[in-house]
Amino acid sequence: MRKLLASLAITMGAVGAAHADLQADADAAAGREKAQSCAACHGQEGTSPSGSFPNLAGQQASYLAKQIMDIRDGNRQVAQMAGQVDDFSDQDAWDVAAYFADQDASLGQADPDEELVARGRELYRAGDVSKGIPACAACHTPTGNGIGSAGYPALSGQHTDYTVATLQAFAAGERANDPANIMRDIAAKMSDADMQAVANYVIGLH
User: How far apart are CA 74 and CA 177, in angstroms?
Assistant: First the structure.
């Protein structure tokens, strides 16, 4: 656990330095124009009408820009995104990321089942020492806003189905663009029930 936390701290510093200049030049107004083609899946202002696609509104710009560039460069495989950002420059990616980051995140309604909520809260706030799972809040903050300087994403209001699918992809190694294997290591220790509990908790987190 201590080694993982040390890795998180090192990664935060390295990613923050790499993104600082590009993020400073990001143009949200230009990003709005470039984001028109994103609306069908992610909503005009970044709130997706389908649980299969992530909400982008309120997402950390540093994280979102990285995902766009990783998809463009083939470092993250997303079948539904095939060809969508192939002609994006790094500046385009940052502009679009800045636009969505400026939008207000939309919270969803968690399943009120007491045991599900309690387990989700436990994992998010404290982790599970017996399984070697650190608290989600360490990287994503207690309110789920993420840490932009480290490129750690906001989770607040994210669709439950999308969160579960993402954790499953990390656990299976199907998604491998997480810095220092952080999410792959964590997700591999989570049961399906753990994933569902965390996903249910963050949809209404703020």
Answer: 10
Contact of 105 with 54, CB cutoff 8 Å:
no
* CA R_g for the chain: 16
Contacts of 167 (CB under 8 A, 6+ apart): 183, 187, 190, 195, 198, 199
Tens digits of per-residue pLDDT, 79-96?
A: 999 999 999 999 999 999
For helices 61-73 and 2-24, what crossing angle results, to 10°?
90
Q: CA-CA distances (angstroms) from residue 148 to 59, 68, 91, 98? A: 9, 15, 17, 12
Of 137, 127, 192, 128, nearest to 163 by C-alpha is 192
Query: Which residue, chain included where needed, has tokens 């809260």?
Result: 121
Tens of pLDDT, residue by residue over 1-12, are: 555 555 555 555
